[in-house]
Structures are given as C-alpha cells and as structure tokens.
Amino acid sequence: MALSKIFTIRYYAQNTGFFLVIFYFFFGIVPGGQLLSYHQTLIKGFTGNMDFLALVCLAWLLYNLKCMAFVVNVLSAKDHTFLYGTLGVLEGAAKWRTWLWLHVTLYAPILIYSCIATAIAMQLHFYSSALVIGLFNVIMIFAPLWVYDRKMKHPGTASFLARWQQWLNRNIRKPVWAMYGYELLNNDTKSLAIAKVVSGFVVIATCSLMGNTYDERFILVGFLVCILFQVILIYNHRRFDDLYLSLLPQLPLPVWKRYLQTGLLYLVLLLPESILLTYKVWQQAAPAHLIMLLATGVSVLMLLRSLLYFPRMDQDKYLRWVLIIFVSLLFLGLARLYWYGIALLQVPAFTIFYNRYYRYEAPLEKVD
C-alpha cells in the first residue's frame, strides 16, 4: 500500500490532465451508442495494416518510456532515499514480483487496450498482428524491470537520456543555425516526439483513406495537417532565439544566408514525415509532386517564422495567421495552383525576414 501511494497514486495524480485529454479523444467525442463500433473499427484499422501498427507501437513505447522516467525520477529524489533500504533488500522472486507489480500498475491502460486489440485481431484472423502486439507488450513489461533493478544497484548512474544528451553535446558539432534542432532533441523531446508520432498517424491515415486512386490534392491536405502539428515548435523557436541567441544578428552574415539556413533547419524538421510519405506513395506519386509537398511545407514554416519577427505577434494573432495561411493553401490546392502557392508563401516570407531580421528586438519580459 505504501508503494502504491509513492508510485501509482502519485503517477496518476500528476498526469490527470494527460489522461483526461486521452479519455476525451478516445471516448468523449464518440456518441455512447457508437463507442463499441468506433473502437472495433480503430483496432481493425491498425491490426490490419502493419505500418499503422508500427506507429501505434511507437506511441505505446513513448508511454512506456514516460512510466519508466517517472519511476526513475522518484528513485532519484532526495526524499525517497529510504526506498533503497526497503526495495534494495529484496532478492530473487520477491524483488521481480514487486517491480513487475509496480510497472504493470503504471502501464495498465496500454496493457488492457492491447489485450483487447489482440483478442479482436485473433477474431479477425490477423494472427501476425496479434503476435506482434503480444511480443511487443512482453518486452514493454519486462525490459523496464532491468532498468529499475540497475537503478537500485547503481543509484548515482546517469539515465540513458542524460547519457544521450552528454554524448550528443560532446561529439556532435553544432552549427549556430541548427541550435534549435539540438534543443528539441535535448530538452524538448516530448513535444518533438508527439508532433512526429501524430504526423505519422496522419500520413498513414491519409494514404489509407485515399485508396488506390492517387490524388495529389488529397495528399497535400494530409501533409498540411502534418505541418499544422509543427506550428507550436515554430512558435517556440522565437522564444529559444530570444533567450539564447539574441546576439546572433551581430555576427557578420548576410540575411539571405540566414534565411537559407533557417529553411534548411525546417527541411530537416520535416524529413520524418516526408520520408514516410514518400515510402507510402512512391509508386503512385510523381517526383515533382513529392518535391512540391516538401517545398510547400518548408515555405509554410518559413512564413510562420518570419511573422514572429513582428514583436507584437502574440499567440492569438499567430494562430489567426496560421488559419489564414492554411485556408488559402487549401483553396490553391483545390485549383492545383501548387507552385503559385509556394511563391505566394516565399515572397512575403523572405520580404518580412529581410526587412525585420535586424530590426527585431526581443521583448524584455521574454529574456529575463
């Protein structure tokens, strides 16, 4: 009971908002009479498509890492050092049963849903998917136990994430223009991972709904939805520059080079979605269409970043511009005026960037 208060109850109390959002999207927005059929269709969708199942497993993996990080953080807290004198004395089967019980109580939402998914997959004769889900969850349940046991035996050892950050900072040369990318990999991995996983779901759903008839307008709409999930990352880019790179404009570098470097950063940011989309439609899409999609994505992000050089561009105004840009692109896409849309994005983006870059001053309240 004491361990439940320290680990399980505290975990769910700290993540109440997270679970409310998940509950709303999976249960709240669906009418009660359609709830069962909705989840049956959802499970049939990802058990009948290995690409979709891979993304679902990735989402489950991220949740499992969240559980593991919570346990490790509790064990690392100074006010929980007494746990080393209680859990640390356990040996053999008692030790592993205790860690298994603790982890299963945290991983239970995924475990229950995956068991239901396995049963439905077996009923639909998707035996390979059922096997994948079963083996995956076995790994997700038992692999963390070794991590917890190692933490108990080596309490001063840095976590894998900390060692990854140390290796990244020590061995990889960081160009100034790519600093925000390293910030996302080091200190904002949660936002980055959520954006990429959701974008992956959108790409797979778009390609599945399109069927066998390829339509670049349909793909463009799906890719614009993927870009929409990167918007908050672009908004945070200004805050990062204000805090850490406010002296960057004083370096002797032409504005057009800074513009190209920012575009290169956003090109790298969109690579995961672009690679997945290319893999899904390679046999149907013309190379020019794939180049158009990537150019559109980078152009949208560049315009959104350029707009943030207006100091009074708060989040509400920023989101209004996001809506205007995306609606405009949807109409241009319906008319198949793709390259005109890219030009209409790049011209104001570069114009604003060129005229506002050296005039921009970070608000004082953002750098204190």
Automatic annotation (TrEMBL):
Record key words, sorted: Membrane, Transmembrane, Transmembrane helix
Transmembrane segments: 12-32, 52-77, 98-120, 126-148, 193-211, 217-235, 264-282, 288-309, 321-339
Domain of life, source organism: Bacteria
Entry protein name: Uncharacterized protein
